[in-house]
Amino acid sequence: MMRGNQPYRSSFYKDEDMVALKIKGLPYSATYEEISDFFDGMGYVFKSVVIGLGRDSRPNGFAAILFESEGDAEAAMTKQNGQYIGNRYVDLT
User: Fold this and answer.
1) Of 58, 56, 16, 21, whose CA–CA distance to 42 is shortest?
2) What is the dihedral of CA 1, 12, 76, 8, to 10 degrees?
3) What distance in Å separates the CA atoms of residue 70 and residue 51, rounded to the nearest whole number?
4) Residue 80 and residue 90: Cα distance in Å, rounded?
5) Cβ(43)–Cβ(52) below 8 Å
6) Do 59 and 85 contact (CB within 8 A), yes or no?
């Protein structure tokens, strides 16, 4: 049973096959859905977005998302790096 924002787990992929992309420069108002939509169709792991919080427990403009393979992560980074989510461009590493 899945609870909260736990990533979808598939037996097809092993943990070592998944790769995380770091997302910097997000609008503080960015939602899980907006970030997921930004990477739609690029091989990200469903429900794997983690939004960073500052010491005050508010979003800090940083997030991470898992991809099913290194190739998917590299392709997403090449296509989406410098593109906009809301009114801010994002830096992917």
Assistant:
1) 21
2) 0
3) 21
4) 8
5) no
6) no
Whether pTM > 0.70 for this model: the answer is yes
Question: In whole angstroms, what is the distance from residue 10 CA to residue 45 CA?
Answer: 9
Name the token pair of 81. 């790096």
For 26-76, the pLDDT digits (tens) are 999 999 999 999 999 999 999 999 999 999 999 999 999 999 999 999 999
Mention every residue, 6+ apart, whose C-beta is less than 8 A from residue 50. Answer: 5, 63, 64, 65
Contact 23, 93 (CB under 8 A): no
For 88, half-sphere exposure in the C-beta direction (CA atoms, 13 angstrom radius) is 15
Domain borders along the chain are: 16-88
Q: Class of 16-88 per CATH?
A: alpha beta
